[in-house]
Design brief:
globular, 176 residues, disordered C terminus, YbaK protein
Length: 176
């Protein structure tokens, strides 16, 4: 891994957590870092997770959701025991994590922010998240991601275009 390691991969190695590193050619013109990773690696966007930094009651926290989903700020605040959440400024996120936007990892952050992982991750054998720079992803089990990031697991992601009520109702199964 000479030259490809990051603080995220170093943290995983120190914790003796197994992972697979996946590198791809990052295209700076691509509209979405997460979608780009999913497409480049040929992996379902449901298994590739983006790391977003938000403020909950004034404190920075990290939300990790599938790249095709949106971060539900109200659910993130509730998962953190707070009341109000908003997306953090990019410069604040980069300064706190030590990573650049598009390469923020939930693992190995400069300042260890609270991490909340969307519960959908737990349904996969392995998931992907940023390894700490654009064009580099780590693949690991959801349980190992939780352990490495010290994460809490909660329902914090929702699909674009669905209101909170629609999203919750989509889980309801009924018979005719």
């Amino acid at each position: 891994m000479a030259g490809r390691g990051t603080t995220a991969t170093a943290a995983l190695e120190r914790a003796k957590i197994p992972f697979t590193l996946h590198e791809y050619a990052h295209d700076p013109r691509h509209e979405s870092y997460g979608t780009e990773a999913s497409e480049a690696l040929g992996v379902s966007p449901d298994r590739v997770f983006k790391t977003l930094v938000a403020e909950v009651d004034g404190a920075l926290v990290t939300g990790v959701v599938p790249v095709g989903a949106q971060l539900d700020l109200k659910a993130l605040a509730a998962a953190c025991g707070g009341k109000k959440a908003a997306m953090a400024q990019v410069t604040a996120a980069e300064r706190a994590t030590g990573y650049v936007a598009g390469g923020i990892s939930p693992v190995g952050q400069r300042k260890r922010l609270p991490v909340v992982l969307d519960s959908s991750a737990m349904g996969f054998g392995t998931v992907f998240c940023s390894a700490g720079r654009r064009g580099l992803e780590i693949e690991l089990t959801p349980a190992d991601l939780v352990r490495a990031a010290g994460a809490t697991v909660a329902d914090i992601g929702r699909h674009p275009g669905l209101s909170r009520v629609d999203y919750q109702a989509s889980d309801v199964v009924c018979c005719a």
